[in-house]
């Protein structure tokens, strides 16, 4: 049991160390909860950066599931990048972060809306909390980029 606890504490310590952390806001003197702000560049569509805010509890085995996401175009988005992404209805997971030693994760999934030429980034928890799966959505339109594909004109 001691070994399991020490492995769990070590895993928790490692998840708190992040090279993509850009901000850390304390929620007060009498709490161990902080709001961590992370910046993540899409690994395929490298012209998109997502900023995620989530609560992390330093002395807990499980962080709260709430998170917020904002994604913006921060560089060039090309047609070649869009050609490489998963265009299925469920898209693909582009980021994943452990929120608990009990198999809870926060994932960010990229989904392409071909009709509106928009990339959607969905942040969600993989474990139900308080009767709900927590999620947040941000979109990045391709309008104004070299990747934008105008709808064919009908006569």
Q: Could you explain the architecture of this structure?
A:
The structure is a single chain. By secondary structure, the chain is mainly β. It has one domain. It is 14% helix and 41% strand. It has 2 helices and 8 strands. A 4-stranded antiparallel sheet has the order 1-2-3-4, with no helix packed on it. The protein has a 4-stranded antiparallel sheet with strand order 5-6-7-8, with no helix packed on it. The longest helix is centred in the first third of the chain and has 15 residues, at 2-16. The chain is elongated and about 65 Å long.
Level of helix content? Answer: 10-25%
What's the number of domains?
1
Mean pLDDT: 79
Sheet of most strands = 4 strands, antiparallel
Unreliable stretches, pLDDT < 50, 5 or more residues?
1-17
Provide a count of the helices: 2
Q: In angstroms, what is the radius of gyration? A: 18 Å
Structural class of the helices, strands and pairings? Answer: mainly beta
Gross morphology: elongated
Q: What is the string of SSEs from the N terminus onward? A: HEEEEHEEEE
Number of strands: 8
Strand order of the largest sheet: 1-2-3-4
Distance between the termini: 72 Å
Determine the strand fraction and express it as a percent band.
Answer: 35-45%
List the helices and strands and how they pair.
Layout: H1 2-16, E1 21-26, E2 33-41, E3 48-57, E4 67-73, H2 79-84, E5 92-98, E6 105-113, E7 118-125, E8 135-141
Please give a quick description of this structure.
The protein is built from 2 helices and 8 strands. The chain is mainly β and 155 residues long.
